[in-house]
Design a protein that fits this description.
By secondary structure, the chain is an alpha+beta fold. 43% of the residues lie in helices and 24% in strands. The protein has helices spanning 2-26, 47-53, 57-60, 71-75, 78-89, 133-148, 167-173, 177-180, 205-210, 254-306, 312-343, 353-363, 365-371, 387-403, 466-476, and strands spanning 32-36, 42-45, 91-99, 105-116, 122-131, 152-156, 162-165, 216-222, 228-240, 243-252, 349-352, 374-377, 382-385, 411-419, 427-434, 481-485, 491-498. Helix 11 packs parallel to helix 15.
């Protein structure tokens, strides 16, 4: 009785084991796995086999595996040959065409193993196969993408050998495809490229690749005729059965390099031209002052000596000459200031903007007292600036606010607010608000140009350069200046200066 119970338990255990094995095999979806008897008739079938070959288990079990071979292979006895070789060698591997239930063909990679009992008798065969069509289609698509690429595309293995390239690479380097495949990439990129792919004893190939993947590299390419030209290379990794390959997109940047060289040369010429122009303006303005001073002095002498002694027309002519000489003198002085902003400025230092404003107010004391202007300010920060130019900036803006005032007491207020950003990028935004005449919005940009006036000379004196000087000073400090205003309701000028590197 106990013996019978033991046999039953063994059968149950075997049944459970077989069921577990069947469930395991059915869980494998990307490989066909089935067993055959010694004659090639199918005795087991997994879900992967059903997906790949198209037969359900109830349709295929009991049939001969020769139904998976193309008719021409069946006709020449290929299925029998496969079983015979497997039985003789114990194992057989091949890649070959197979046929699905619907008659479609596919390329399969398969391994067949002979199954024998302990006495060595053949009990059947076990096939493990995989559909290679998807990988072949992917390869075909990849090759198609390479050919469609506008750049030269070269695929290189970790030994630095070229394994694939496109037609654009042939045109770029002047080689036929068969002349480059299998050759070292150094043949077309002499230096710098292979070194980034191959381990050098201190780092692995993977580390060498990781350092350059995804970044553009500028190197020199070499054509078949030996001529060299600049290229930019973008690398991207590609996993394959042969290991990691690297796809290199190679672009001929000869035109870009010529354009960059031309641009640099043009920039240098413009810089030199601007420096020469600024120097000319300074020298010309400086040299004009002496003869102009003489003209102004003698016309003023004529006015003092002969006013009222000649007719009224002569008095008017002399007055015009004196006024013209004085205006010319002021214009030259302002031109000198403008020319010197970029060429004769001091180094930037930590400067108290509050002290600079107080100095500007002191310089304008006469105009402030005459107009009764009230100039106030909030606590102002320390900034990185040229002290003399900062004083000039405040002086011009406060002076303009006093000049273009409404009836009543001119009121001018200066405030500041810190702009967000990292310490190295922090800036102070200054605002100067007045209650003056105001400006129409269509003139907001015009007023910062050279010799731009919105009023007649008879109404307000000046050369029209003051705000142009302010703009040039602020731009030298890396900022910009703007105005907000409404006609008759005053104006607010805003400009930015870099914060002090120390305490602000």
């Amino acid at each position: 009785m106990a013996q019978m119970e033991g046999r039953g338990l063994a059968r149950d255990t075997l049944r459970e084991s077989e069921e577990s094995y069947r469930i395991l095999l059915d869980g494998i979806q990307d490989h066909a796995i089935f067993m055959m008897d010694p004659g090639g008739r199918i005795v087991s079938w997994n879900a992967g086999a059903e997906r790949i070959k198209g037969y359900g288990a109830d349709e295929i079990i009991g049939r001969n595996f020769s139904c998976f071979f193309p008719p021409e292979d069946v006709g020449r006895g290929r299925p029998e040959d496969v079983l015979r070789m497997t039985a003789a060698n114990g194992r057989h591997e091949e890649q070959g065409m197979r046929v699905r239930k619907d008659g479609s063909r596919f390329l399969a990679s398969l391994t067949i193993t002979a199954l024998r009992d302990q006495a060595g008798n053949l009990r059947g065969f076990f096939e493990f196969s995989h559909d290679l069509s998807a990988s072949k289609e992917s390869e075909a698509k990849y090759r198609g993408l390479l050919e469609a690429a506008p750049d030269a595309m070269v695929v290189v293995n970790q030994d630095g050998k070229i394994v694939l390239l496109n037609a654009q690479a042939e045109r770029t380097f002047g080689y036929r495809r068969d002349e480059l495949v299998g050759q070292q990439v150094r043949n077309i990129i002499p230096t710098g490229f292979a070194e980034r792919l191959i381990a050098d004893g201190t780092r692995t190939a993977a580390e060498a690749l990781a350092q350059q993947i995804g970044t553009g590299i500028e190197l020199s390419g070499r054509r078949k005729d030996g001529s060299e030209f600049p290229v930019e290379i973008m690398l991207s990794p590609l996993e394959s059965l042969e290991g990691i390959l690297v796809t290199a997109a190679i672009r001929d940047i000869s035109v870009r390099k010529k354009a960059e060289t031309l641009l640099l040369r043009t920039v240098e010429e413009l810089k030199r031209s601007n420096e020469e122009l600024a120097q000319f303006a300074y020298v010309a303005s400086h040299d004009l002052q002496e003869p102009l001073r003489m003209v102004a002095s003698y016309t003023q002498l004529l006015s003092d000596r002969y006013k009222g002694k000649l007719d009224s027309a002569a008095d008017e002519f002399i007055s015009f000459a004196v006024d013209g000489a004085n205006r010319m003198h002021r214009s030259i002085q302002d031109l000198l200031v403008y020319a010197r902003v970029g060429t004769a400025g001091e180094n930037f230092e930590d400067i108290s903007s509050e002290d600079a404003l107080e100095q500007a107010i002191a310089n304008l004391r006469g105009a402030i007292e005459e107009s009764g202007a009230l100039v106030t300010h909030d606590p102002l920060p320390t900034v990185l600036a040229d002290e003399g130019q900062l004083v000039q900036l405040f002086q011009n803006l406060v002076g303009n606010a006093i000049k273009y005032r409404n009836p009543g007491v001119p009121q001018i207020h200066v405030s500041s607010a810190k702009d967000g950003g990292k310490n190295d990028e922090a800036r102070w935004i200054f605002s100067m608000r007045d209650n003056g005449l105001g400006i129409e919005s269509k003139y907001f940009k015009k007023i910062f140009g050279m010799f731009q006036r919105l009023h007649k000379r008879e109404e307000y004196a000046g050369t029209g350069i003051g705000l142009a000087i302010c703009k040039k000073i602020v731009e030298r400090h890396g900022g910009s200046i703007s105005v907000e205003s409404q006609l008759g309701q005053g104006s607010t000028f805003r400009f930015a200066l870099a914060a002090s590197k120390g305490k602000s």
